[in-house]
Amino acid sequence: MSSGKPLLPYHPTIQEFLHLDPNQEGVHHQIQDMSANSSSAYNFSLGSDLSNCSSSTLFSKPLTISINIARAILILPLAVIILHLACQRWKKRGSLTDASNCDIFTYHLAVMELLGNDCTIDLAFQSYNEAFSLLKVALITPLTFIILYMAYQRWKQQGSWTAESHCDVFTYHLAVMELFTILGTAATLLGYFSRFKIMVLVGMNFDAVPYSGETLFHDLTCVERYLAVVHPLTYRGLKTARGVRIRNVMIGCVWLLSFGWMLVRSLRSDSLQAWG
């Protein structure tokens, strides 16, 4: 039923776009029919497809909802607490110039988690997810390269990272994870607007790497800070060669789990199987 108002320009969702047959006549008519048959056709959710694998072609809805709720429960309170501590420190000292580089990076990461959380995006910015994805990449890219440049400078000065604090090393790996987010988002948007399906699939799989890895690195950072404050003797013991080996093993496990998640997503994607 037409309400008499002109429909907004319709863009197919990632799922709809991947299932359109480019060899079939009247692809544009398919898109127009989708728009006419849906009163909320323009409220598509590209951003959630890019960042958190919430595609119905990948997972069932209950599993997707459970993952997003668990992520929100774990990350949101932690991000709010970190920003509250930063605000308290700023009020007490008037600035954050005396804070360690690791603390500054942690504050910025907390802001990014608030910006990137699906619960925030899907509720408030559902119609503007492409713009949000571009804004997120624009904000993350400079900070990521600054962190990696500082890591490179320290490596040149010291010859290795064995003397680095565990928190700093976790931050460097988080920055590398963000590179996958940048590349994945760029590839997905480029493929989406150029109607190139394979590029969309590659970008979505790239973006799956930091989905679990970032959360795990945040967890390791929290454990490291907890040991430093509550169990200082145990924390000093982790600064030895044995502690460095344990840290490297945990980092390797995080990367394996991250790439494993990407592989699972690739195998379970109906769209990817259609290209086989």
Describe the structure in brief.
Helix content is 76%, strand content 0%. It has 276 residues and is mainly alpha-helical.
Features:
276 residues, transmembrane, disordered N terminus, 13 helices, GPCR_Rhodpsn_7TM, 76% helix, mainly alpha, globular, transmembrane helix
Describe the structure.
This protein has 276 residues and is mostly helical. It has one domain (57-274). It is built from 13 helices and no strands. It has helices at residues 14-19, 27-36, 46-52, 61-93, 101-116, 118-124, 129-158, 166-193, 197-207, 209-230, 232-237, 241-268, 270-274. The chain crosses the membrane at residues 65-86, 134-152, 172-193, 246-264. InterPro entries: GPCR_Rhodpsn_7TM. It is found in: Membrane.
Task: Outline the fold blueprint.
Layout: H1 14-19, H2 27-36, H3 46-52, H4 61-93, H5 101-116, H6 118-124, H7 129-158, H8 166-193, H9 197-207, H10 209-230, H11 232-237, H12 241-268, H13 270-274
Helix pairs in contact: 3-7, 4-5, 7-8, 8-9, 8-10, 9-12, 10-12
Strand content: under 5%
Q: What distance separates the N and C termini?
A: 40 Å
Number of helices: 13
**How does the overall form come out from the CA principal axes?**
globular
Counted up, domains total: 1
Instruction: Indicate the percent of residues in helices.
Output: over 70%
Instruction: Report the major sheet.
Output: none
What Rg is obtained from the alpha carbons, in whole angstroms? 22 Å
Regions with pLDDT < 50 over 5+ consecutive residues?
1-13, 24-59, 123-128
The SSE order reads HHHHHHHHHHHHH
Going by helix content, strand content and strand pairing, the class is mainly alpha
Q: Based on DSSP secondary structure assignment, what is the total number of beta strands?
A: 0
Give the overall average pLDDT: 70
Subcellular location: Membrane
Organism: Xyrichtys novacula (Pearly razorfish)
Domain G-protein coupled receptors family 1 profile: 143-276
Keywords: Membrane, Transmembrane, Transmembrane helix
